[in-house]
Amino acid sequence: MAGKLLIIGFGPGSFEHITKRAREAIEESEVIIGYNTYVDLIRGLLTDQEIVRTGMTEEVSRAQEAVRQAEAGKKVAVISSGDAGVYGMAGLVYEVLMEKGWRRNGGVEVEIIPGISAINSSASLLGAPVMHDACTISLSDHLTPWELIAKRVEAAAQADFVIALYNPRSGRRTRQIVETQRILLKYRSPETPVGIVKSAYRDRQHVVLTNLRDMLDHEIGMLTTVIIGNASTTIYDGLMITPRGYQRKYTLGADVQPLKPHQRLQEAAEPWALQQWDEEADADDEDWAWEDDDLSDARRGSEQAAGTQLESVPVGGGVSGTALAVSAVSVAEREEPSSSVGAGSPFMLAMEALKLSDLSRGVVTESSGAPVTAGLFRQQAIFELAVSPGVAEKRFTAKQMLTLAEVVGDKGSMEYTPHHQMIVRVPTSNPDEITSKLRQEGFLLAPIGDVAQLKACDFCNAEKADAIPYAEELQKRIGGINVPKELRIGLNGCGMACYGAVHEDIGIVYRKEKFDLFLGGKTVGRNAHPGQPVAEGIEPDRLVETIERIVQRYISEGHPNERFHKFFKRIKEIEGYKHQELPVFKIEDAVCGD
Q: pLDDT at position 56, please?
């Protein structure tokens, strides 16, 4: 007698989010088949069933065993976290059945029990980020060619989908999420909201709200779902929200709506809809052709409403250009094709608003090619840079601090770092003016992010100044250049090395009128360690050239987001300096704070 296959999605893993039918299916099954972690997550629901559990990458063997047991007449549960039909086991079980010539009539019975997928559980923790059109993309290229995944990311980015990234990064797959960010930044603002959710509704749940520019600064792994907002997604009070578009027809802060229920579906209130376009109109003329002229109700007050919508929001206000533009269109009156349309009419104001709405693609132009003034809707840029008194100088003067305060103002911020720099963030559209003022006061300016940064000691207030010229030359040659991952270069002016140069990615110590070199230090983490001493007594006139060659090798051969100590370990040898394996200590896993 043929058995039955129950393909079960049990949601994020918490018992309260497992459906009633999923619980029943687990209870009635004779055999439970699943990945080790998933079996552990539902152990509290198991009784005396036979358990078949396997490790990662053993999906095919699990599916084959499930089919074999069902064909032997047993009722078999194949479990998946989330939804079994979304990157789960449902499709693979069907593929195995198809290979065996299975038919729905006469073969083993198959029931799919749906569960809450990661896009849904993560979205609920973030707020309401997938209120509009969304898609899911897995970044794992173990089964799908990366070229195809990249095309899907590009298409979704162009189409302004909210995007949920599954399997974003693993221990060995580190480049995919970096490439995905690069593609998305071609089409979306760096300030686009991003939600990062790890282990949703599990014991170690962790939720982060950030943006597209900074998303890689946060922990992302196989237990993480990353949700990228679209052009209208916003952050409000710690929540990520994507408007559906109600603001186009409704005034959300008013009890009485300007459009009555019978008016909201009229063509007058939907000038963006497909049927509004005359299929025979010349696209090059960008003329709008309207099919219905009966607007007696919608016309009242439309001119005043459209004018107010366009003029009442100040620069830098909390309303997006897209929402504002379409809001203006929704109340604009429609003109007959033969009527005269003035430059100040509601219709023309609405059309102008539409031209201004697509801010993600930079400068918007008229059909004539002339730029449209979009300042009313443009989001204010944030200029970031690192500021310090100098390579060796660690003392800020009073005048320098006053200049910093003036430049930062009330809306900017300053953050002092352990590397003796101020990270300055200033809202401005004119960064040259800021850098000019700071340079006039003698500040050393540097970019931040994945760049090479030199951290030198103060050379005992310049009393031990022999190595200062070499530090300044290194800063001049490689300070601020782009590297695969933030690169710290430490330089100490004597053998005491009190500024911790030997713990940096590249450590340089001036001793006995020559330089000692350390490579591959790691300053943080449970396995933090100093760099390996690879050379003693480097002649001063060879130092800068040697460091420059090491950094250039890292730039040319390092993987995106690969730390220097991992790079050194991977390539084994750099500029003749060989990597040595360090003793491995067994450290018990622990959660921060425990």
A: 78
Cβ-proximal residues to 438 (8 Å cutoff; 6+ apart), any chain:
387, 403, 404, 407, 445
Task: DSSP for 304-352, please give it.
Answer: HHHHHHHHSSPTT-SS-HHHHHHHHHHHSPPPPTTS---TTSHHHHHHH
- Residue linked to tokens 């065993």: 65
Residue 498 phi/psi, 5-degree rounding, is -70, -15
Compute the distance between CA of residue 269 and CA of residue 275 in angstroms, rounded to an integer. Answer: 12
Checking DSSP bridges between strand 127-128 and strand 109-113, what pairing results, if any?
Answer: unpaired
Given a cut of 60, is residue 92 above it in pLDDT?
Answer: yes
Secondary structure of residue 546 in the 3-state scheme: helix
Residue with tokens 């198991």: 46
Question: Phi and psi dihedrals of 233, rounded to 5?
Answer: -65, 140
Q: Which residues, in sequence order, are bridge partners of residue 365?
A: 371
Is residue 432 within a helix (H) or strand (E), and if so which, with residue range? helix 431-440
Write down the pLDDT at residue 560: 66
pTM of the predicted model, to two decimals?
0.49
Closest CA to 296 of 260, 341, 349, 254: 260
Strands 382-388 and 422-427: antiparallel
Do 51 and 32 form a contact (C-beta atoms < 8 A)?
yes
Tell me phi and psi for residue 93, to 5 degrees: -60, -45
Instruction: Report how far Cα 580 is from the mean position of its chain's Cα atoms.
Output: 35
